[in-house]
């Protein structure tokens, strides 16, 4: 019945830890374990940056909503009658009750279950019972949150002063995404996976494929083994495979061009507030999916794509998401921190709006590679978390092909430095840094 | 295997928060969420005030006991051989073992299970093995706690300097309770409900019925809809109902008078240390119970009551309880804090000592309204707790008919102010404040 | 989804608490409950002293390992190809992943599951992929931990400056243990019991048998009731039992001498860093085991023992273990702290290497007394923990026959004083204190 005693933690100087971070090495332990860093991460990263939250396809109709939890902050993302998307704080202005309990659903108005204060989907209060004299409804609407949609992806920023580079990033990403007509796709499947590890370990794990050969047998059968290495010399035994790789590269360029999708790789991971990378990767076999044979897994191609052999268009977005776009489906990943040692990863599979389950696709085939990969990654994240919690842990050196991990970590350290410096150099960071290829 | 890292919480200035509380509005978030406030509540409220703990009917015979947990403090409430009630700390004076593990039971002596130190039910040590030379048994009795019984209700106060106004409150309440002969009733049923919310949200929820219409369909069928409003103008469609209400009022006054029960309402919620309210409410239909038809639910009336149409005599007691007395049963509620965000609510149904289950009453009928209401209230408390934990929460304005909530909150704030001021103005508060009607 | 608020705990002055400890009384509450004391215990006791960790019999062959968790520190204890035993930190030097997840097993090399960094069983790194230029493998071996084996028992010390008296203690204990040939025994059974109590309450409970009469009916049937008392006057009703006790004493001395085992009792519990006690106790009935009739429970005697009536050779070892050696089996106990109020106790039963389950012994008979006793002790520890958490707890006086508890507590307090004093007087403590008989 009594409360558990508080586990004491030594206090730390985070600014000092930020200042002394050694490039090329993993972070010091407190970044992965210390509750003060976790709280700082919520403030300096998750309450200050544009977070990917949901696909518009999750709320296709007026009144459709999803709720998301960013730390202790609950956000209602809801489509209004005029089709626009609002992000609202999920806290009644009467006595503070949660208004929406469910993760998703559909409403006419937003009615608080406690005393029935009633709000429109734009947040304005339209009914409150037995109010005191002088009560002014207009002062008690649900608080609004900054929200942006980019080619069918919904981003929110909890700060009143969002990073200024988002427009620029959106304008760079949009041409790649628009041909997929994401807003009109259908959610075929969605899963939530709780991983017992710090959110940065989840992101770091996503940012390298050094662990793929041994760790993801389902996934590596589709990718070519030349993706992360400088191919200066191909061993004779791989010569045939390499030629197949080059052909696949050529074909996806043609396929992409046919759909009007740019081919250029952007890699702006650590030189701006809204770090991102967008790249095309060929896939082996039929080049359409992550299965061992690369075969199409939904019969209907999406958006403007006409040739299944489009490979994998990969978008990495900081701080909290990654995406894979194929010719016949897209897979969307979103990580949100729950505790210093706990992160929730949501995966959403999108297909053509007219695709019919059991006819055009089936869920096991559609999801098997990433379901397996997610489960394997969870184990790696949890092993890394447990190691980082051990007093014997010391930062170790990244491999040559872990450069995106290093860039993610460098971005993170710069964002903290920016936060400590007052958060006024969003654009300065971009100007000073070398911009990616 | 390793301990979880400590969730950091910002430090707060509680005295400042107390000083700036805005009347008419719910409390600021830390009062509902912050562990330092929780600890202060244990010290300033639960260790300083008279708490309702149990009905005497729970320990009818010598040796009968119940244990209760007030924060980390475990209390044995036990009936001695001479019928008096003792409250003892449940900690052996040898090596500190818990003596009683069960929530209730019956003993001859209190024997520590570890090394068999043996105490009488008045706490005195009567046996200890292999003690050192010079050991003086009289110095090692179980520590006693202040205990008072009022017309069959047991109150304890952990402080050595209990609030001085308890005698006065007891003398005001006793005439209402004595006719029920509570000490001789029978416990028909008892439930414990854990609610994931701060204890004050549990109390606030109990102190208003604005949420009843939509939230408690089982309960509102029995109450008249005129209870919390100033009835200056009754709409024509309610005229008939209103006349029934007035008749019910008249009848319960007659019924009460026949049993020698005062009719006056006391409302001294925020003007004294031992805040309370006692009121009569008529019930619709037969006026005997909370069921939709108001019918008697136990065949035997209790105490001196002779007419079932007694309605609901309601006692609100601060900090931690509320009671409903009907002609044929009483329902007793007790809230105790378990954590900043967890409270345990015990509900006890009392009936005539000779009432036989299955003959005079059955448990489902006896308990259904309050079981349903408790479960619904738990949801509201938990929604409010989750909202108060959200950084977006701000105090909101109470409705006109949430005045008892406001009074509870004002009482609480005054008790904290009193605690910070040294706790010497128990009586002063009463003298300064306007006494209720 | 949000983190639980931190339970606040008042800060304490541990040095002051250490200084004012009253001999003959149990410790003040914070020693059993406060997270800061827990952290100090990990630093000053568990990271500074030689801990008993495992029997060599648990890792008989090259590549066999066990992992143990000392606070957040995970240790791999592994037998190398050359038969020597290594203790290694279970943290990969690349990105910090746990290397071994299982509690025991067998490996060729130690391969990190994340990116396959590969280490020999002596900790040296032999493979790492795609390393940066200039990477020096020799600098990235698994960190080694001090490890010692004493007559088949494995001890580790996490400190680089282990207590200097271990050699002396080892030389005193070894003659008692060597005849049992422990290293060559077979693990017949092993259990882990999580007890919801501070590790010191687990140890204190082990250091006295005042609770045995009422608390351990299975165990006390085998022991004579004269063990912990000064037998100056035997009551007539016990005269016959006492004569049996004296005969059993004589026989075990002869049995021990035949096996070359010293008879002298060492009792050096509170006068040195590596506190210990080793004693012979006769057992009733056949004198071979803890069963009610003292009968042999494995058909094969172990080591050099030739007569089953060897009684119980008991080794108490500080901070964290105790052992019982009989003629036909040994039982090994190891306690490790998990949280301020949680301890894990591992019990291991060892028998002759050629003993066959179902033929020479069966698990239920072999384990029943200590399984029952462990379970009973867990309850006592948990009752004591709950009492110590109660604000009403005050230290109580030890009984005359709780002197080993007092010595354990005194040892503990001296170790903390030593820690606060800089940890330089390991040998000084021994020199100053009176050495046991």
TrEMBL record, chains A, B, C:
<dbReference type="GO" id="GO:0051537">
    <property type="term" value="F:2 iron, 2 sulfur cluster binding"/>
</dbReference>
<dbReference type="GO" id="GO:0005506">
    <property type="term" value="F:iron ion binding"/>
</dbReference>
<dbReference type="Pfam" id="PF00848">
    <property type="entry name" value="Ring_hydroxyl_A"/>
</dbReference>
<dbReference type="InterPro" id="IPR015879">
    <property type="entry name" value="Ring_hydroxy_dOase_asu_C_dom"/>
</dbReference>
<dbReference type="GO" id="GO:0004497">
    <property type="term" value="F:monooxygenase activity"/>
</dbReference>
<keyword id="KW-0479">Metal-binding</keyword>
<keyword id="KW-0411">Iron-sulfur</keyword>
<dbReference type="Pfam" id="PF00355">
    <property type="entry name" value="Rieske"/>
</dbReference>
<dbReference type="InterPro" id="IPR036922">
    <property type="entry name" value="Rieske_2Fe-2S_sf"/>
</dbReference>
<dbReference type="InterPro" id="IPR017941">
    <property type="entry name" value="Rieske_2Fe-2S"/>
</dbReference>
<keyword id="KW-0408">Iron</keyword>
<keyword id="KW-0001">2Fe-2S</keyword>
<dbReference type="InterPro" id="IPR001663">
    <property type="entry name" value="Rng_hydr_dOase-A"/>
</dbReference>
<dbReference type="GO" id="GO:0016705">
    <property type="term" value="F:oxidoreductase activity, acting on paired donors, with incorporation or reduction of molecular oxygen"/>
</dbReference>
<feature type="domain" description="Rieske">
    <location>
        <begin position="50"/>
        <end position="156"/>
    </location>
</feature>
<keyword id="KW-0560">Oxidoreductase</keyword>
<protein>
    <submittedName>
        <fullName>Putative iron-sulfur protein</fullName>
    </submittedName>
</protein>
């Amino acid at each position: 019945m009594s409360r558990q005693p508080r586990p004491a933690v030594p206090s730390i100087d985070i600014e000092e830890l930020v200042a002394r971070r050694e490039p090329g090495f993993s972070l010091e332990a407190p970044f992965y374990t210390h509750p003060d860093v976790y709280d700082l991460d919520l403030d300096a990263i998750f309450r200050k940056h544009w977070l990917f939250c949901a696909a518009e396809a999750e709320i296709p109709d007026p009144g459709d909503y999803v709720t998301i939890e960013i730390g202790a902050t609950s956000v209602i993302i809801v489509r209004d009658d005029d089709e626009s998307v609002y992000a609202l704080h999920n806290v009644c202005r009467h006595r503070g009750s949660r208004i929406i309990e469910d993760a998703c659903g559909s409403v006419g108005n937003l009615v608080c279950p406690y005393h029935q204060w009633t709000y429109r989907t734009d947040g304005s209060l339209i009914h409150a019972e037995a109010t005191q004299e002088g009560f002014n409804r207009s002062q008690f609407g649900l608080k609004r949150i900054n929200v942006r949609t980019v080619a069918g992806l919904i981003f929110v920023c909890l700060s009143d002063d969002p990073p200024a580079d988002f427009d620029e990033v959106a304008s760079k990403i949009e041409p790649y995404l628009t041909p997929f007509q994401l807003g009109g796709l259908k959610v075929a499947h969605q899963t939530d996976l709780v991983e017992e590890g710090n959110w940065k370990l989840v992101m770091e794990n996503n940012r390298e494929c050094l662990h793929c050969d041994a760790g993801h047998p389902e996934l590596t059968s589709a990718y070519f083994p030349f993706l992360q290495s400088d191919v200066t010399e191909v061993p004779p035994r791989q010569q045939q495979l390499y030629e197949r790789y080059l052909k696949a590269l050529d074909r996806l360029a043609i396929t992409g061009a046919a759909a009007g999708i740019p081919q250029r790789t952007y890699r702006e991971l650590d030189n701006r507030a809204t770090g991102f990378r967008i790249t095309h990767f060929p896939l082996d076999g039929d080049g359409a999916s992550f299965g061992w044979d690369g075969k199409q897994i939904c019969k209907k191609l999406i958006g403007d794509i006409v040739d299944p052999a489009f490979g994998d268009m990969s978008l990495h977005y900081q701080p909290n998401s990654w995406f894979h776009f194929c010719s016949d489906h897209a897979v969307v990943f979103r990580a949100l921190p729950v505790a210093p040692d706990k992160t929730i990863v949501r995966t959403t599979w999108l297909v053509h709006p007219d695709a019919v389950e059991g006819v055009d696709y089936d869920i096991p085939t559609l999801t098997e590679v990433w379901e397996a990969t997610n489960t394997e990654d969870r184990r790696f994240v949890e092993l890394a978390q447990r190691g980082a919690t051990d007093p014997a842990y010391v930062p170790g050196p990244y491999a040559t092909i872990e450069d995106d991990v290093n860039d993610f970590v460098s971005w993170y350290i710069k964002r903290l430095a920016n936060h400590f410096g007052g958060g006024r150099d969003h654009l300065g960071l971009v100007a000073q840094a070398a911009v990616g290829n």
